[in-house]
Amino acid sequence: MDFMSKIAIFMLMLESTCSIDIVDDYKLNLTSSGPAVRGSFIDFQAQLYLGASKTPTKDEELFRYDWRDSVYLLTESQHANFNTSYKPCFDSLVEPRTYSMRVSVYDAKKKSIFVPVTRKDIDFTITSTLNGNLKHNQTVHRGLRASNNTFSTGKPVHFTANLTDIFILPPTFTYKWLKDGEEYAASNVNNISLTFEKTGKHVVRLDVVSTGIPVDCRGDEYLDSLKGSFKTEIILKGIFIH
To answer: Which residues contact 185 (CB under 8 A, 6 or more apart)?
Structure first.
């Protein structure tokens, strides 16, 4: 190999090495729908901004997004503009714990060369139980100083289960409502209205269990029932004056 050939190879190696550096002032915002129970999907959202001003990049710019999670250690690539989404399945055999998703973004306008733009990691949690919360409201004037968990005695307080896991086929559930530690009702309906006569703090708990044979996001049957327990504390005061 002559001297000029060695120089040419050296320059190619140098160019390849330099290409791993972040070359543009882009910022990446990542969000996810997690936590998620094992066997469900998580919806990840990525939005690319130019510089600290967080002005969205132009529509005509094209990027390659490489998604790599620490569960399966596989990379999924997609081409998009300044925002995109990715909804992977984490099957029912995944160990419940916290993992991370790394998103690497490349400038793909030149099809033969992908120039690194930015990258970012986001943590997400796979759980062994269902995820969600209890929402509550009351259709009576609560006064300007009442907090969002303070209600009037003698009037129904409406509770609704808000389950946030994303399934390939929504399972059916049994909802068991407990009022101050005592079982109040059980049904296949995700809401209930409760009336409290005593002032002070009250605790409402909901236990949710799947019925039938639920399937995970890969279409495989769960080995066990899906379960979740949700609790909220509310404060009851005398009926507010309208």
So the answer is: 176, 177, 192
Mean pLDDT by runs of 10 across the 242 residues of the chain is 44 38 74 97 94 57 91 95 95 96 90 86 98 91 63 94 96 96 93 95 97 94 95 87 44
Pairing of strands 26-32, 75-80: unpaired
Q: What are phi and psi of 174, to 5 degrees?
A: -105, 135
Maximum distance among all alpha carbons in the chain?
95
Regarding whether 44 and 111 lie in a shared domain, the answer is yes
- What is the pTM assigned to this prediction? 0.81
Q: Do 89 and 138 belong together in one domain?
A: no
CA distance 226 to 99: 21
Say how far apart CA 178 and CA 180 lie, in whole Å.
6
Q: Within a domain: residue 19?
A: yes
Task: Note whether residue 178 is domain-resident.
Answer: yes
Beta strands 200-211 and 227-237 are antiparallel
Look up the domain containing 68 and give its range.
3-127
Q: Which of 182, 191, 199, 203 is nearest to 240 (CA)?
A: 199
| Residue 242 is assigned to a structural domain of this protein | no
Q: Where residue 204 sits, what CATH number does that domain have?
A: 2.60.40.10
8 Å CB contact between 72 and 89: no
